[in-house]
Amino acid sequence: MEKIVSNTFQTLAKNKTANRMAQKYGLKMGAKRFVAGDSILHAIDCVRKINDAGMVAMLNYLGEYVHTEEEASEATRNCLLTLDSIYDTGIKSNLTVKSSSLGLDVSREICVQNLRKILEKAKEYGNFVRIEMEDYSHCQLTLDIYKELREEYENVGTVIQAYLYRTEQDIDDLNHYNANLRLVKGAYKESPEVAFPKKSDVDKNFETIIKTHLKNGNYTGIATHDDAVINEMIGFTEHNHISRDQFEFQMLYGIRSDLQKLLTENGYKVRVYVPYGVDWFGYFMRRLAERPENVTFVLKNTFK
């Protein structure tokens, strides 16, 4: 039953009609728990509170799968505005972007041009930009673009997903670039031809790639809310004398605030992923697909 519910939300995440309806009715039915708001002002207020609690953030202007150059230009403009706002307000946050929102499905050239504009602005401000990983069809393209830009910029990183069979090889390959990676389990619906169908296999691979990347001496964003994984990595880093300056725990806005606080109090760097913008529906659906308790929360909100 849980798998059926998850698949339903994964399918809805890409449904254009549902997305349009969601944007029409705004951040209702519990979405505000996971999305900071529809404007940069809401996002800045949210990050200030996160900073006041001793944590840092990564802001994401929501949007994906745009199909025109004009839409990609608008998304780029909002990413540049986000960087301006981070600098002007002095909040502690970097920026994370989706290649598909910057025109990857229009043309590779347009996407790279837009990414260069963003990276140049971030470099000017002394900030960092992470290129997110999306579904499998975008994986190799995203990595190729990352490698190209990494040759030019030091302030760029990307994301690797543990549920893909190819991931261990990607970790080895990216070691040549001293890649700053956000390591995640993966949140998109993928075929068993390219991804582990069993959660236990994903969990095992997740711990393996984190340990490999840390042992390689590269900066690692450990993106998880899983207590077992976090405890394992705390023990691993202590046993191997890996500096806390080489890694950070990354969590999503609205999920496990108690754990975020506990890790911060124990001296670990915690970075909270803070999404904002009007195109929030796909992101929200994937959060519901990931965790049954998120669905319960939304249902309670709906019938209050």
Entry keywords:
alpha/beta; 304 residues; single chain; TIM Barrel; PRODH_bac_arc; 2 domains; 8 strands; eight-stranded parallel barrel; 51% helix; 12 helices; globular
Q: How are the SSEs ordered, and which strands pair?
A:
Blueprint: H1 2-13, H2 16-25, H3 40-52, E1 56-61, H4 69-89, E2 93-97, H5 108-125, E3 129-131, H6 139-150, E4 156-161, H7 167-174, E5 181-184, H8 199-215, E6 220-223, H9 227-239, E7 247-252, H10 257-265, E8 270-276, H11 281-290, H12 292-302
Parallel strand pairs: 1-2, 1-8, 2-3, 3-4, 4-5, 5-6, 6-7, 7-8
GO biological process, one term: L-proline catabolic process to L-glutamate
Binding site for FAD: 133, 161, 185-187, 199, 224-225
Cofactor: FAD
